[in-house]
Specification:
Blueprint (H helix, E strand, L loop, with lengths): L3 E4 L2 E4 L10 H5 L2 E3 L2 E6 L4 E5 L1 H14 L8 H14 L6 E9 L14 E9 L10 E5 L20 H13 L4 E5 L4 E5 L3 E6 L2 E4 L10 H12 L4 E3 L2 E2 H6 L2 E6 L3 E8 L2 E2 L7 H14 L10 E4 L3
Parallel strand pairs: 8-9, 8-16, 12-13
Antiparallel strand pairs: 1-2, 1-7, 3-6, 4-5, 4-6, 5-18, 6-7, 9-10, 10-14, 11-12, 11-15, 15-16, 16-17
Helix pairs in contact: 2-3
This protein binds 4'-deoxy-4'-aminopyridoxal-5'-phosphate (PMP).
Amino acid sequence: MSSIIFFDGKFVPEGEAVVSVRTHALQYGTGCFEGIRAYYNDKENALFAFRLEDHYKRLMLSGRVLCMDIPYSVSDLCKISVELLQKNFSKEDIYIRPFLYKSDKVIGNFSLPKLGSSIAIYTVPMGRYVDTDKGVKVGVSSWERVHDNSIPPRAKITGAYVNTALAKSDALQVGFDEAIFLDRNGHVLEGSAENIFIVRDGVAITPPVSDDILQGITRNTVMTLLSDFNVPVQERSIGRTELYQADEVFICGTGAEVGPVVSVDHRNVGNGKPGEITSKLKKLYFDTVHGANKKYASWFTKVTPK
Ligand code: PMP
């Protein structure tokens, strides 16, 4: 399906949104990106983009790490995204991918402030990314996560997704659905593209943002929703074997939404079925992102076809 892409300051047909093979970001991974969902609501025949502004704020922060020069504000980028969703409007859930990248065609220049930047934004239809009903089987990866002094995971940098690909690909090859990264000290960090929570004795626990994780927007949404139904949330480092002993484990992210983890390293989590708190949270999350939880109306940008 061909669509319109925002590219070099203009809306162009997909076939015109192309870069040279010499592009710095293509050669060296010097780009950063976002992933945003817009959920289709058939009663209103509208797409509801979820936490658009928060995603663009994070893109700006990622861009700061890579010394990106970007001639748009968060509000400009939100407006551009709304226009793009209108141009590509379709009656299904959509994923928006903003991509900010070093676009100069040079070899051997690694001075980030001297390299020119460009931004592109495209959309693709996206259904479920993980099996949120049956739950997912995960394995702890032998690949160590990149860290703040190598490729900062706090910024959503394209080059760091080689780390993701290595871990996820190996996990899939041995029959897991997802990989879990540990840091150098053996602490649990996150999935290949999701944050992680465990539940022990009714308390939801997730690694702090000072561990080497992406500060996920879904993580923040989930923390808000958990406190709404009085589940205390603790941010602290998690040991590997806590995953084996937890009552419940779940992963969460824009793509993955809320994914119950039913086994870790071939050990059942709880009774091997999605846990009670996770299931309640998942329902509340789906209701919220589909606009049924009016308390969080400010998280949405409604987009109707033109
Ligand atoms: N960690 C990593 C490494 C990711 O790629 C993602 C997906 N963006 C997440 C966590 C979840 O972040 P978010 O909830 O903002 O999508």
